[in-house]
Design a protein that fits this description.
single chain; 511 residues; alpha/beta; FAD/NAD(P)-binding domain; Enolase-like, domain 1; 3 domains; 5-stranded parallel beta sheet; 23% strand; binds flavin-adenine dinucleotide; NAD; EC 1.8.1.4; oxidoreductase; flavoprotein
Length: 511
């Protein structure tokens, strides 16, 4: 709340130009304002707040609302809290990424470290169990937190009856009707299908099926070289599958990944054994045989080629999920991509109905959903809230990790702003060298006139943790000199971060 109204301390050199340049120009600001109807408030409301959806957005809103003393109910139909993230997204994928990396390292990366190991065998059932244990522990933990903070958890499917009334079809049978002063829609997103390919979650899978394969496929084709596709490609390639990634664009990692970093990522993942077909489109698929055949050709047209695989992962993106909410009944509108339309305070045209997380604007990320949840409750409680959409990091948890915050070099160039770039390779960082893990680099981009940091892009060990410092720097409007003059512990990977900042405003020492 206070961050929205209090002036910030000025960073050393950045304050000269503290304007709007740091806001990425590819972000659609959630501010399509329709005009509010008269507050249709029901005096007989039995809840201050009803939340539909118990994913990251919904459960965080429920906890925060409970802390703020709002009588709150959170409706979730899945049977467990935590949504996509905890059940079939961030958490299970990171469990498999971590353990498949360990397996791969033990198989291929111990001899030179002076560790001789005997027979190494994959126990996929146990690896899946470890994943399930993490998921179960965390979802139960969230349930406990709701209880601890006095928020009611209702297992069922919610839909609008009228502007203040939500009906719940209970998972255990029966119905319940809730009257609410405020309603938050947090129903999340679902995987986008591929026309002509029938996802059975066994042979043709979405990310959900890819997180639960019963055996390692001999050959796997991944349609879509975005973050989810590449993370899953890494898991199954490390476990022994021959993986080919087909990507329509000329680069992997999605359009948010800086082109220079994307190139590095493709090179490194290629060395690990993943094959890439960029600038390539899938034309059709046939799953009638013992393998699945995909016909692919160059995105701009050209010679057709057939790719055979035991498993095909469709990872071409996610779309907002709002099915069955009966939104037409209350007049809540979507845009052409199915995102629910809101203003800057997350309000729909019904001012007491707000929308947060994947089912509305902005990047589909768990931490973005979480920020919005806290802000939405603050708006309800106090009238003030704050999310800085220019400082939302992205991480790809491959090895090495890729992480970034702020704008890409291509975006900055297109905006016409003059900028400086500074890079530092991990091959010149003492800790990375000690750890025999030297692939990648840190790249800073700063405004040439003010030195304000506009974007930071990292590929390398620990990038996902390191990006927090860059996010803080952007949040505080720091200059590259601010970072360069901040003492970083030795020997750490974060010295590469400092040195890249030094290279941006002056010169690196160790390269
Ligand atoms: C494989 C994968 C990996 C990912 N990895 C990351 C990552 O590393 N980092 C990251 O930041 N993000 C990651 N994401 C994205 C992240 O999971 C989502 O951004 C996040 O879960 C969005 O939260 P949400 O609460 O908006 O939606 P969701 O998590 O989708 O939750 C919405 C919930 O609403 C429920 N629901 C829907 N309709 C109703 C209804 N009518 N009544 C009751 N309940 C309903 C659904 O059952 C669901 O549980 C990943 C996603 C996937 C698929």
């Amino acid at each position: 709340m206070f961050r929205a109204v209090l002036p910030r301390a000025s960073p050393r050199s950045a304050f000269r130009h503290a304007g709007s340049r740091a806001i990425p120009n590819n972000f659609v600001t959630p501010m399509i304002f329709i005009g509010h109807s008269k507050r249709g408030f029901a005096s007989e409301a039995d809840h201050d707040l009803v939340i539909i959806g118990g994913g990251v957005a919904g459960y965080v809103a429920a906890i925060k609302a409970g802390q703020e003393g709002l009588k709150t109910a959170c409706i979730e139909k899945r049977g467990t809290l935590g949504g996509t993230c905890l059940n079939v997204g961030c958490i299970p994928s990171k469990s498999l990424l971590n353990n498949s990396h360990l397996y791969h390292q033990v198989l291929h990366d111990t001899k030179k470290r002076g560790i001789d190991v005997g027979d190494v065998k994959l126990n996929l059932t146990q690896m899946m169990k470890a994943k399930d244990t993490a998921v179960e522990g965390l979802t139960k933990g969230v349930e406990f937190l709701l209880k601890k903070n006095g928020a009611e958890y209702i297992k069922g499917t919610g839909s609008f009856v009228d502007a203040n009334t939500v009906k719940v079809v209970l998972n255990d049978g029966g119905e319940k009707t809730l009257r609410a002063k405020n309603i938050i829609i947090a129903t999340g997103s679902e995987a986008t299908g591929f026309p002509g390919l029938n996802i059975d979650e066994k042979r043709i899978v979405s990310s959900t099926g890819a997180l639960a394969l019963a055996e390692v496929p001999k050959k796997m084709t991944v349609i879509g070289g975005g973050i989810i596709g590449l993370e899953m490609a890494s898991v199954w390639s490390r476990l022994g599958a021959e993986v080919t990634v087909v990507e329509f664009l000329g680069q992997i990692g999605g359009p948010g990944m800086d082109a220079e970093i994307s190139k590095q990522a493709q090179k490194i993942l290629g060395k690990q054994g993943i094959k890439f077909k960029t600038n390539t489109k899938v034309m059709s698929g046939d799953d009638s045989g013992s393998t699945i055949s995909l016909k692919v050709e160059a995105a701009k047209g050209g010679k057709e080629e057939t790719l055979d695989a035991d498993v095909v992962l469709v990872a071409i993106g996610r779309r907002p999920y709002t099915d069955g909410l009966n939104l037409e009944q209350v007049g809540i509108e979507k845009d052409e991509r199915g995102r629910l339309i809101i203003d800057q305070e997350y309000r729909t045209k019904l001012p007491h109905v707000r929308v947060i997380g994947d089912c509305t604007f902005g990047p589909m990320l768990a931490h973005k959903a979480e920020e919005e949840a806290v802000a939405a409750i603050e708006y309800i409680k106090t009238g003030y809230g704050h999310v800085n959409y220019a400082a939302i990091p992205s991480v790809m948890y491959t090895h090495p990790e890729v992480a970034w915050v702020g704008q890409t070099e291509a975006e900055i160039k297109a905006s016409g702003v003059k900028y400086n770039v500074g890079t530092f390779p991990f091959s010149a960082n003492s800790r990375a060298k000690t750890n025999l893990d030297t692939e990648g680099l840190v790249k800073f981009i700063a405004d040439a006139e003010t030195d304000r940091i506009l974007g930071v892009h990292i590929i390398g060990p620990g990038a996902g943790e390191m990006i927090a410092e860059a996010t803080l720097a952007i949040e505080y409007g720091a200059s590259s000199e601010d970072i360069a003059r901040t003492c970083h512990a030795h020997p750490t990977l974060s010295e590469a971060f400092k040195e890249a900042a030094m290279a941006t405003y002056s010169k690196a020492i160790h390269f």
